[in-house]
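Researcher: Quick test of sequence recovery. Tokens follow.
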């Protein structure tokens, strides 16, 4: 809305002069009435002094008006001396209301600019929309925002994953090749350092793996979608926790979506802690992916037998021995133990962080 500016604005002193003339009062007389100096009255009248709340109340009492009248006259006059607010400020505010501009600039997803029109153009290009009022869409039937609503942080993250995925060169994807790759991945699950080989194995199987740190206040864990006419699958992970058990569970969960061809018409977005909490009200596809991920992390029959044997008294020794038996890192065993027993405090020191193993070999952003 364009700001309305009066054609001409007068200082409050002009109105005070008129009021005194109507009553036939001199400045000296008025000064005595309000118990103020003649100099103060004169400076207000000639515009050298502004009206304060204190003088506004004195003027109001003497002239039978309201203090608000004099304060409003003063405010209007002072605002008239300031140049109208630039439309660019309002435009910048609209952009920040709709998109996480500051974080996107900080992460270098877009370049900043003092020219708000240039900044808006970069945002529109990032989201591939023509107007700030357009819905932000991803893929063919992606989640949809109401107009003028804050863009979903998950979608902002997802656009970055897709942007980076296009820079990767991978082999042609086939389900058969990915199933073979699962055997290679399973052989890496004993040592955290072996995780550095995961991106290469997936690339050879035709799967693009992209690691992008989640935006603040976003719960995104991972995603599966397809590019290049739905022929090339992409797995995006946020590594929000970075623990070895979360990594393998989330990765295998997304691989199952790829194997099932999920995410072609709509990206599969995992915004829940699919390893531990928020497992209620999951779709059949999500439940199936969870089951396959659990089985991959630790064969579930063996895990159940282990729990039946030692519950409720566990030790680092028996966890390490069981991990060696099933050829898994102890931290993966602990993750499944947490999931099955709900005792999330157990042996957390065994859940090592694997971010550094991935940063050196995977395509990452934000780490």
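Model:
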């Amino acid at each position: 809305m364009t700001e309305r500016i009066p054609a001409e604005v007068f200082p409050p002193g002009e109105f005070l002069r008129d009021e005194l003339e109507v009553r036939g009062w001199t400045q000296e007389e008025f000064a005595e009435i309000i118990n103020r100096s003649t100099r103060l009255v004169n400076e207000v009248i000639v515009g050298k002094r502004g009206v304060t709340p204190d003088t506004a109340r004195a003027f109001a009492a003497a002239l039978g008006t309201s203090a608000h009248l004099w304060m409003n006259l003063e405010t209007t006059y002072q605002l008239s001396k300031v140049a109208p607010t630039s439309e660019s400020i309002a435009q910048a505010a609209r952009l920040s209301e709709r998109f996480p501009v500051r974080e996107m600039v900080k992460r270098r997803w877009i370049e900043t600019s003092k020219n708000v029109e240039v900044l808006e153009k970069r945002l529109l290009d990032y989201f591939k929309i023509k107007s700030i009022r357009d819905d932000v869409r991803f893929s063919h039937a992606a989640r949809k925002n109401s107009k003028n609503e804050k863009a979903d942080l998950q979608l902002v993250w997802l656009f970055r994953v897709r942007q980076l995925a296009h820079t990767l060169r991978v082999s042609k994807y086939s389900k058969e090749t990915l199933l073979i790759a699962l055997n290679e991945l399973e052989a890496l699950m004993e040592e955290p350092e072996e995780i550095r080989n995961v991106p290469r194995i997936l690339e050879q199987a035709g799967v693009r793996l992209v690691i992008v740190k989640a935006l603040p206040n976003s719960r995104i864990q991972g995603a599966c979608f397809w590019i290049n006419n739905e022929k090339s699958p992409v797995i995006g992970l946020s590594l929000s926790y970075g623990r070895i058990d979360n990594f393998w569970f989330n990765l295998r969960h997304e691989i199952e979506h790829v194997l099932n061809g999920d995410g072609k018409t709509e990206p599969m977005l995992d915004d829940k802690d699919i390893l531990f909490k928020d497992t209620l009200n999951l779709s059949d596809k999500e439940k199936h992916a969870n089951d396959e991920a659990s089985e991959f992390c630790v064969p579930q029959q063996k895990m159940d037998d282990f729990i039946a044997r030692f519950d409720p008294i566990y030790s680092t020794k028996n966890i390490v021995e069981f991990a060696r038996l099933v050829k898994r890192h102890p931290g993966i065993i602990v993750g499944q133990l947490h999931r099955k027993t709900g005792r999330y405090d157990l042996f957390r020191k065994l859940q090592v962080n694997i971010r550094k193993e991935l940063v050196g070999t995977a395509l990452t952003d934000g780490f």
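The beta strands are 208-212, 222-227, 232-237, 268-270, 363-365.
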